[in-house]
Amino acid sequence: MLDRTRTTLSDGTTIDDLINVQTREVQLRAISDPELYDIEMRKVFGKTWLLLGHESEIPNSGDFITRLMGSDPVLITRQKDGSIRVMLNVCPHRGMRVCTSDAGNAKVHTCIYHGWAFKNDGDFIGAPVAAEQMHGTILPKEKLGLTQARTHLYGGLIFATWNLDGPSFDEFLGEMKWYYDMLFQRTDRGLEVLGPPQRFTIKANWKTACEQSAADGFHTLTLHRWLGEFAKFGDGDLTTSMYGTEVSSLQGHALRCMPAANKFKQAAGFRDGNLTLEEKLAIVPPPGITKEMLPQLIRNLTPEQLGLLVDSPPQVGGMFPNVLIAFIYVPQPDGEIIGLTSLHTYIPKGPDELEFCNFILAEKDAPEEHKQKALQFAVRMLGTSGMVEQDDSDTWPHITQTAKGAAARNITMKYQAVCTTPPRADWPGPALVYEGFTKDDTQWNWWLAYRDLMNSSL
Amino acid sequence: MTIDVTATADTAVAPDAFRANRVPVGSPAYNQIAEFLYEEAWLLDEIRLAEWVERLDTNLRYTCPVRQTRPLSQNAASIVRTVMHFDETYASIRGRVGRITDTRSAWAEDPPSRTRRLITNILVESTDNPDEFEVKSYLLCSRSRFEETNLLFLSCVRHDLLRRHGASFKLARREIIVDQTVLGFPNLAIFL
Prior knowledge:
By secondary structure, chain A is of the alpha+beta class. In chain A, 24% of the residues lie in helices and 25% in strands.
């Protein structure tokens, strides 16, 4: 694992001064301090696994997309053998961005500055006027390719890291993989994106969005209160749906499992234990799953996973450091329940700005009509114009700014709502389990994971 | 590689130069349409949303595609109509407005942004239906929130279909082609 050091800022403040493990407080200064930001780029975004997209964005040989890994632009390409590579989109000659498009198809990527050319696996082909050797003879051509990241596909999601010898992706997910598999590994052909991501800018530090993604339940009651007032979710009382089970790990991952019986009248009978799994699945299929796809769930999940997915599906949460996961239901007036699947990455763009990148997905095997409905409702609820998430977009900038005040920087953010309910004896899953009303434990674990990385000697 | 220099970014829209169906700038129909768009901008800037909704056709289709950076030779691909920023019908727009007008917690616009919708470059085409006009307009929307001194801007072209309704019009279709691949607005909690 990581070696621990004492990361110290220029005024002598340590990470451990900022994050008080005894009292579960974080100094507000930690949100948008520029010095911390530089360390985060190296020790967090330079070292952990990062979500970049989905393989369905580049189905054919030669297809590419460009994305950001923290502050580094990367080129993501589909190889002839079907594999996917992620590499630094920076020319090893003079640092120009090699590929300047968001997406496309190309066998060769040529830098427009001096013409250095690269195969779509990143290998250096050569420079113009080969006989004159623009690249010299000091370094062999093998050393002049695009810097390769370590890549992993999980349920079709493209992850990469610059930490070539660090933890494997499975180690990174740890015990939480059992729950993520219920979302990302539950069907034969998996998910696909329904288009390129929505992208927009919020003048806020990335951590404001990301610590919230670690299953902050309390904010729903006030910041998203309109859901009860107008959309009449939970018959107008959102507190009911805040009872459930939160799961998380010291890697900073988190999910909130919300009992279907708390959310839907149709599922009220789930509690009494008289319904079979098949009967429950027919009443309220997991978000994004149609009845026809149920045999796939049975094939791909263990009975324990499937049972939980039906009774108390994970619906919102995050993956450290900067992913929000939403597998949510949108009940319709006519009783139909539409399932939405969306993933966000919050990309740091300086201490005071983030890019909100919203991927909308659906099960590949879902009927086209179902996908289109899910897409429309995802656009209406989440992302750029999403009626739920638009209410988040003032709080994060305000916190980013207040964190700079001479007095405010020394007050603390408090994560002192601690779960004291023991896990249910029959809880089927691993990891850290917090039963009952939503509390702060999962978000606190996010900060512990952050602290761990920030104190690493890497 | 050949580059079609006549290609517009949006191949769904025919090149505008020398279109036979142009409704001349300054003609009575043109002036009515310009006035409709100016009034619409005023209603939205004044947050008179219920009155704005009255000007929408019940068959409204209201969309805002995502943009991508693509080479000139693939300029049409810079407009993405799968995942969009808005993907709306009359009913969904009413839902969005109702969230703002009928609750006490639509925080994204409470307190509201101070906005200014500047409408220019209006070009009108008649269609086969004498009561329907295809209208192109440029919109520069500035937005100010709280004490931020730098205005946020969003620029776009809107391709509208206006349908005559009594002495005025209703908006039956609007496609908003934004200029940014990464929007500079923190949300689209306002209408364009």
